[in-house]
Amino acid sequence: MDHMDVNPMGLDGFEFCEFTSPDPDRMAAQLEQFGFVVASRHPTRDVVRYKQGCINLLLNREATGHAADFRRDHGPSASAMAFRVQDAKAAYDNAIAAGAKPAPAGAALDGIPALEGIGGSILYLVDRHGAAGSLYDDWDQVPGAAEAEAENNVGLDLLDHLTHNVRRGQMRTWAEFYGRIFGFEEQKYFDIKGKATGLFSQAMIAPDKAIRIPLNESQDDKSQIEEFIKDYNGEGIQHLALTTPDIFETVEKLRARGVKLQDTIETYYELVDKRVPNHGHDLERLRKNRILIDGNVGEEGLLLQIFTENMFGPIFFEIIQRKGNEGFGNGNFQALYESIELDQIRRGVVTVDA
After folding, report:
1. Residues flagged as binding site
2. Cα(251)–Cα(248) distance, rounded to whole angstroms?
3. Residue ranges for the binding site for Fe cation?
4. Coil, strand or helix: which one is 82?
5. Structure pTM?
6. Is CATH 3.10.180.10 the classification given to domain 158-347?
7. Domain ranges of the chain
8. Regions of the chain with pLDDT less than 50
């Protein structure tokens, strides 16, 4: 089987994720607080590219069009994402032939081939990357952006994965969509239960092993997935995971800047040495920063991660450092779920039977 059969679209990682908000200045300030800087501006549209490492996040402030409609419907939201492909037109034609829907007429930026994505967002197919130059070559470059980035960055480097929260009964639909159109495979399946609520999660991974999309579906009408769908007014991107080569340094910088990170139940740290023997990390520094650790020192490798509190509406970010572990933190998934559920219980969204 040749390479193109394995990876029919020539996928090669995420190109960008696009955000929009009724309060774009606040969103811009949050991105800068998170270590991003403005690298370039679209020459004719009110779209700004924020950059850190190899991560591109667009802020779309256009007064009319898809992003404007999207923020009207969803508030602060992720209105689009982009996959890198080998040949955008061929990938688009193949996707439509396989049953994908085109993005609404006139909705896409610069006529880039685009499909309808999760919750009515746009899924772009971009072939200007690497040797072909960059999508942003024609944009207005911001003078001094590289120096500003060096000064402002917190060490984030790659968009590792992003999740979709879907309505009950739709997990299979979206797993099938990514499988049929792009050749994604099912990587891990989770059945997570808290005290009163639960979720199913199906992690999808692309043939390039660089695009990962876990799909989350509620098991009931009260879980944090259902709460997201209610708050967001629909299905959508729930969190983005960004990699760092040194999670301690990144998290300490973010904390110093006032970024709010998820807390973890204290008992989590009492069990770390037993759950992940010989992990070799400073337990006190893990505990102080509320960083989660998963995996094992042997074959599987380790993974360290932490999640922010909600930043853009109900969307949050994950900071992740992979040390040979390509999973999603099975043990941490449960711990995270329980900590969010505790917050739901405190807020009275979820009640636990005595």
Report:
1. 161, 239, 318
2. 5
3. 161, 239, 318
4. strand
5. 0.93
6. yes
7. 11-152, 158-347
8. 1-4
